[in-house]
User: Fold this.
Amino acid sequence: MEKTRFTGNFTQQEPIPEAGIDAALRVLRHGRLHRYNLAEGEAGEVALLEEEFAAFTGAAYALAVCSGGYAMANALRALGIRHGDKVLSNGFTLAPVPGAIAAVGAEPVLVETTSSLTLDIDDLAVKAQASGAKVLLLSHMRGHMCDMDRLMTVCDAAGIKVIEDCAHTMGAAWNGVPSGRHGVMGCYSTQTYKHINSGEGGFIVSDDPDLMARAILLSGSYMLYPRHKARPPVDTFEKYKYLTPNISGRMDNLRAAILRPQLADLPVQVARWHDLYVRVEEGLRNTPGLQVIERDPRESIVGSSIQFLLPAADPDQIETFLAATLARGVELKWFGRKEPMAFTSRYDSWQYTTAQSLPQTDAVLAGLIDMRLPLTLSAEAAALIASIIRDEAMEIAA
Assistant:
């Protein structure tokens, strides 16, 4: 009997909302794309977006920038990280995170990963003491948040400042506190596969006026920082304006125009992602040879992707499984592959960093499978995808 197939697409995003298209056309028609190129009395799309994003996250200040990677590097610079400094970060993350550390000439100190795909806080405490690092660039990788209450207790006691990489957690929360609001700065991405889409883009949020003043100056404000709406008081900039280099990375008005309606719609989109995630998760639960990642009830997640483990499968079995699901139209990624493929690079492929050994992370990644959940999937498609994965996982477990 012929096996069922999924015939949809895992990389097709929903179209930009009509309100965003209309706003983009208005910007194109007046031609004022640069954030500081404004008409008399005009706030500008970027400044308005920053104000709205600050309100969305509950932050005092927000800065819109050109990418999530730039946001992280800017935040590190704002905190005073310099060449040769050590910065703690996740062993399991995507390459832009260690890339941001490398961009400022610092050295990543990688922390182990738990079977829940979160930062190992016990290992963090040990490596913080051994390395002397005073900054943690924490990646909420694939939307999995560690125990943020315990993490902040450990970091506060050790004098470690936390920057949160929220590329996969815009709209998520821990114990009711929005992602990005536990540390001193939160960084977000608006790259196409993130939760709001401008192709490329990002945000930084903070309640610290000095850090945000430096971040705005670093982004290339050309002494036009009074035109920002979600900024610290103007006199805060006086301490830094002649000492801070311009490392340009501003967002433009066209991208901001596209993003503002998407940000307004994000709570509805988060609920839709949650429904897709739960449908796939329930379809996979109790599958022989397959282990779902149990989520902490204190997490409010954005289920834009889903991960599971094949803990007993060897590499050949995993390759067989991936080929079988792909033949049935289901595109999965494997984080345990030795050679980087697309975004699934392992920490040992970041050869611009000091070689490090993370045996616990290696064991987790060896069987870790990843799948996007775009909102173009229907509930019926999600159920079908789960059934295909289940069938093929049982085949290799038999």
